[in-house]
């Protein structure tokens, strides 16, 4: 209860701070006269309608630096006919989507830095993985169920009652971008499960936004691909990335992304990469939750010990680094700027090398070098800690990578041997993936985020248990005790004891 009250206090403080921000803006500009802020005539015309049609959007924008600087609706949404998502809106050619191409008009350096990052390529990389796995992420669920690409799900029913008429007669139906293969009461299973994949995985990695229908004055997006606000969105205009994934419209507050609670935590969470949960259980998280309302998270180049007193995701991975009053590393839009290791892939781990092809998509090259990144990380952390403190943490984490990778490599080898013997099942694939994605990878991440429970009980303990449980209960009956004893010596001895016991007591 106390924790909830504390979070409520922090939330209230945040609301108050937003109120102060709005008051400052109100003092500077007359909201009833948008030309006072230096807005273009086009944006002023937009606001004549939208302050009534979408007041929330307009009021959110009033709290932004865009408002302060006379950047309005048209400056961000304008486009031309070469953009597949363009349409005519009361005489203006605009796009509902605002992509890094449009943001880059005013923020060219930031946009390029972001689009060069692995963050922005996460959609392309996962799309490649999807294609290799058989068409879409549905393959994991479908293989376990024994479904193929042509399997049709039962009629749209719940509780034994037909729901199809209630779906197509819903008042939302005319506005939704429903693809043709879902306009049927008996769609293919893969088409429906694709919704889960896009709204789940791709909501963070980034969908390939598809246009379901287009007229001169309207663009309707496929509901499976929009509005998923993924960092690696593949946009109709050919760009990759989505600035709004971290800077949600329309206030674009630095405070939102630097807090990390939502902007980073909405994706870097859950069982396979619980960075957000780890942060909350670390000493850094404890300090953040108790002091956040006192920090200046909107400062342009935020400084440790002045504007904030414990790192968050954004300040640590992307913030400026100082030596005294001198900035030695500028803020960056490459979130991996402090990362020595590539930890995000469930199949492997390695030290980053500048120019090294990404294993999932070789055309994508790593922009920075792991050792250089570690230099930045060392400088970042020694703003607050001694060099020995930081070195012990980093090198301690480094020394665990080989052991963790060993568990994963054993799982892969066993899976290959099962497949070679013709004895593998879709459940083996699921188990191996869980060992790599839900056990090994989170533990690797935990070693550099310092949450005790995720390092031990949810970490190495879980990794070892899940691997041994699979070998003892599932693999041994198929490949034999001699085989599994190569990895876990006691299993062979245990099997002999069981056989002796069964023989003695005539158990078959």
TrEMBL record:
Protein name listed in UniProt: Cytochrome c-552/4 domain-containing protein
Listed Gene3D superfamilies: Hydroxylamine Oxidoreductase, Chain A, domain 1, Hydroxylamine Oxidoreductase, Chain A, domain 2
Key word Signal present: yes
Keywords tagged on the record: Signal
Range of residues in the leader sequence: 1-26
UniProt organism field: Desulfurobacterium thermolithotrophum (strain DSM 11699 / BSA)
UniProt keyword Signal, yes or no: yes
Any one GO molecular-function label of the UniProt entry: oxidoreductase activity
Entry-linked Pfam families: Cytochrome_C554, Multi-haem_cyto
Domain Cytochrome c-552/4: 34-77
């Amino acid at each position: 209860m106390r924790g909830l009250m504390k979070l409520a206090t922090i939330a209230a403080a945040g609301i108050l701070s937003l109120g102060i921000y709005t008051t400052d803006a109100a003092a500077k500009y007359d909201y009833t006269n948008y030309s006072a802020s230096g807005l273009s005539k086009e944006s002023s015309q937009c606001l004549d309608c939208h302050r009534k049609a979408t007041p929330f959007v307009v009021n959110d924008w009033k709290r932004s630096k865009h408002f302060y600087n006379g950047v309005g609706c048209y400056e961000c949404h304008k486009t031309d006919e070469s953009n597949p998502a363009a349409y005519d809106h009361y005489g203006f050619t605009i796009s509902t989507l605002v992509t890094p191409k449009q943001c880059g008009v005013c923020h060219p350096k930031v946009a390029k830095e972001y689009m060069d990052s692995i963050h922005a390529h996460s959609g392309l990389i996962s799309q490649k993985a999807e294609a290799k796995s058989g068409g879409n992420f549905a393959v994991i669920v479908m293989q376990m169920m024994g479904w193929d690409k042509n399997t049709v799900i039962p009629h749209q029913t719940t509780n034994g009652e037909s729901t199809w008429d209630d779906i197509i007669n819903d008042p939302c139906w005319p506005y939704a971008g429903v693809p043709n293969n879902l306009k049927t009461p008996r769609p293919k299973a893969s088409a429906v499960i694709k919704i889960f994949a896009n709204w789940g995985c791709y909501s963070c990695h980034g969908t390939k936004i598809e246009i379901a229908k287009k007229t001169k004055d309207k663009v309707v997006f496929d509901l499976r691909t929009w509005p998923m606000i993924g960092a690696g969105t593949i946009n109709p205009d050919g760009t990759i990335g989505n600035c709004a994934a971290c800077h949600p419209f329309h206030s674009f507050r630095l405070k939102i992304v630097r807090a990390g609670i939502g902007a980073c935590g909405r994706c870097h969470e859950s069982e396979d990469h619980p960075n957000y949960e780890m942060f909350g259980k670390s000493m850094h998280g404890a300090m953040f939750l108790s002091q956040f309302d006192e920090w200046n998270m909107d400062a342009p180049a935020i400084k440790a010990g002045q504007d904030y007193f414990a790192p968050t995701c954004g300040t640590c991975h992307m913030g400026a680094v100082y030596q005294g009053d001198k900035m030695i590393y500028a803020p960056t839009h490459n979130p991996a700027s402090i990362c020595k290791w590539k930890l995000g892939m469930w199949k492997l781990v390695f030290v980053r090398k500048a120019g090294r092809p990404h294993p999932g998509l070789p055309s994508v090259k790593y922009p920075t070098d792991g050792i250089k990144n570690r230099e930045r990380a060392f400088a970042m952390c020694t703003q607050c800690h001694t060099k020995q403190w930081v070195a012990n943490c980093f090198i301690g984490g480094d020394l665990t990578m080989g052991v963790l990778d060993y568990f994963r490599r054993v799982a892969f080898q066993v899976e290959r041997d099962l497949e070679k013997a013709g004895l593998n099942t879709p459940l083996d694939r699921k188990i191996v993936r869980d060992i790599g994605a839900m056990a090994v990878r989170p533990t690797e991440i935990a070693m550099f985020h310092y949450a005790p429970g995720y390092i031990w009980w949810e970490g190495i303990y879980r990794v070892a248990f899940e691997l041994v449980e699979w070998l003892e209960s599932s693999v041994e009956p198929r490949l034999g005790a001699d085989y599994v004893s190569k990895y876990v010596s006691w299993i062979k001895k245990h099997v002999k004891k069981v056989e002796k016991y069964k023989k003695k007591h005539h158990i078959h």
